Predict the 3D structure of the following.
Amino acid sequence: MDITYHGLNIETTDAMKEYAQKKIEKLAGHINNIISVTVRFRVEKINHIVEFTINGDGAQFIAEDQGPDMYAAIDLLERKLEKQIKKHKEKHMGKHHRK
């Protein structure tokens, strides 16, 4: 799995990268084949914003969230992506069961 990190108006620290990677690995348990992941960190005024773009399972999952710090934003983002992945799986499982 290829993970790329980008920072806009912020320096990406090893701790931020490691925290994001742990969350991605947790999400990887729900996706069969992750090809690549792009993580974008940015700060706008007082908002800490994180965006994940995950390519895998023949789909692209994109989510963005913000919080008082990067770690809180990553936690919120994880929940959003779990919902997206679950919805994607249910949609595709339904197609296979109809045959």
